[in-house]
Amino acid sequence: MAKDRAVYVGPRLRRLRRDLGLKQSDMAEDLGISASYVALLERNQRPLTADLLLRLARTYKIDIARIAQDDGADYSARLQAVFKDPMFADLDVPSLDTVDVSANYAGVTEAILRLYTAYKEEQLALADRRADPLADAGEDRDPVAESRRFLSARRNSFPALDEAAEAIADRVGGMARINDYFRERHKLRVRRLPAEVMSSFLRRLDRHREAILLSDALDTASQHFQLALQLVYLEMGPALDGLLAGGGFESDSGARLTRRALANYAAGAILMPYGTFAKAVEDRRYDVEALSRQFGTSFEQTAHRLTTLQKPGQERVPFFFIRIDPAGNVSKRLDGAGFPFARHGGGCPLWSLHHAFRRPGEIITQWLELPDGQRFFSIARTVAGGGGSYGAAKVTRAVALGCAAEHASKLVYTLGQPVTEMQAATPIGVTCRLCHRTECPARSAPPIGRTVLPDDYLRTTAPFGFATE
């Protein structure tokens, strides 16, 4: 008979204890063991026995699988992802070494992961300060920028939320049963009311009447999303707060915006569980419309979910996502693909994202090339919000979903495209102030650091002429 493998769950046990708000001595007393033994378990210096696993599950009313799942592979994959950063390109760090460190030195592994995340956040903050040198350092931080920085530093990937959401989706058993689930588990009815009764609300939790109220102006996909979102707030509050605890926010608004973004992430994960969705995207070759029909979600919800598929060891194509209004204002921006979004000022008008309003509802594909030679592939399309009844206000926005050129062949949108399409990529810039393409006829401002030539004797085809020094 094969010998059972010892189970080491140090980091997971420590997270569980912290989520429960317990000290090591408190957990030791609850389980009838010594505090020093709890410390050894958390440092992976002792394996978790079957007897202790059952005691944990009974004492804290939690699923055994939540505790017993092996963290080693997850930590190893995350550590290997860190060492792929170009900053470490000159270091020889074999994958076996990262496996060894993650398996035997859980504390060191967690410390490296925390330091790297903090480094990424500070790098993004520094980019913000450099891009806006006139900003008063003493002013309050922009809460939207704080939230975007938090998400970008983590590549908009939160495996803990994916796991919790997948467990909830299994319990619900499909959106057709969600009304029953609310009634059985939370003693809440789901009621759909006319928009005029709901006033300015789309969803409201009415504890007095023990009901979740939804506006009937919402389409089916939006109703499902709002119900999933309410589930997140009812069942995943501690998980959201735990992720926020390491954010270092300088404003309450920044923390609240980020909590809302994480809740939206989790709601999408309930509607499109990671394992099922990750398989479907490969079967469908990342066809957003086909995936939307399969999961009963909107185009935007599905595109948003595609940016989150970076769970260590189960990664799919890394995407970036952006949403703008007709005036070019950015209302949502998510980056899982390393796209250098403009942090201040407008985007490049040569990007098809800004042309999508001329062709409503149509998917527009485009190859993009940045000034440093990086190439990306993007799709853009308009999406609509609001409406739902005659005379109700409707908002049309444009969204773009894109990935690095090396991944584009996996997408249905590039099937049958000749190689010349990629070779003829549209030269775009991040923003005019940072783009040094001298021949661009769409330029709206001169780039930082270039001297503008007088046009007393010569006028170029571009709006500005620059010295060539």
Automatic annotation (TrEMBL):
The organism's place on the tree of life at top rank: Bacteria
HTH cro/C1-type domain mapped to chain residues: 13-67
Alphabetized UniProt keyword annotations: DNA-binding, Transcription, Transcription regulation
Cited SUPFAM superfamilies: lambda repressor-like DNA-binding domains (SSF47413)
Disulfide bond among keywords: no
Family note: Belongs to the short-chain fatty acyl-CoA assimilation regulator (ScfR) family.
Name this polypeptide is given: Short-chain fatty acyl-CoA regulator family protein
Species annotation: Sphingoaurantiacus capsulatus
Upper classification of the organism: Bacteria, Pseudomonadati, Pseudomonadota, Alphaproteobacteria, Sphingomonadales
